[in-house]
Design brief:
A two-stranded antiparallel sheet has the order 1-2. Strands 3-4 form a two-stranded antiparallel ribbon. The chain has a two-stranded antiparallel ribbon with strand order 5-6. The protein has no helices and ten strands. Helices cover about 0% and strands about 45% of the residues. By secondary structure, the protein is mostly beta strands.
Length: about 100
């Protein structure tokens, strides 16, 4: 078997898997920018919103940072994979970018 992966035939956001007589290009984990294999522990570097922790790229919980990320009144922070979003607190709704009582 010829190792086709030796010539790095895959794209930047993929890793190469040598198979018998061929190869496969598989997508890197969402937490990676470039990778050497499957999973968040095989990242070359971590994607934005992720930090290297115990040799793995893990999500940064922006909602638990000392500095508040959702600055508007009556607004809550919701952590998402690689990011966060600001939503109106319970009992409030978004009206032209302001959280007003419902």
């Amino acid at each position: 078997d010829l190792d086709e992966c030796a010539t790095s035939p895959c794209k930047d956001h993929q890793f190469c898997l040598n198979t018998d007589g061929s190869f496969l290009c598989k997508g890197c984990d969402a937490s990676c920018v470039g990778c050497t294999g499957e999973g968040s522990d095989k990242c070359k570097t971590c994607a934005s919103g992720y930090v290297k922790e115990d040799e793995k790229c893990t999500d940064i919980d922006e909602c638990n940072l000392p500095e508040k990320v959702c600055m508007k009144e009556n607004q809550d922070c919701v952590n998402t994979s690689g990011s966060y979003k600001c939503v109106c607190s319970e009992g409030f709704e978004d009206k032209d970018g302001t959280c007003v009582q419902t």
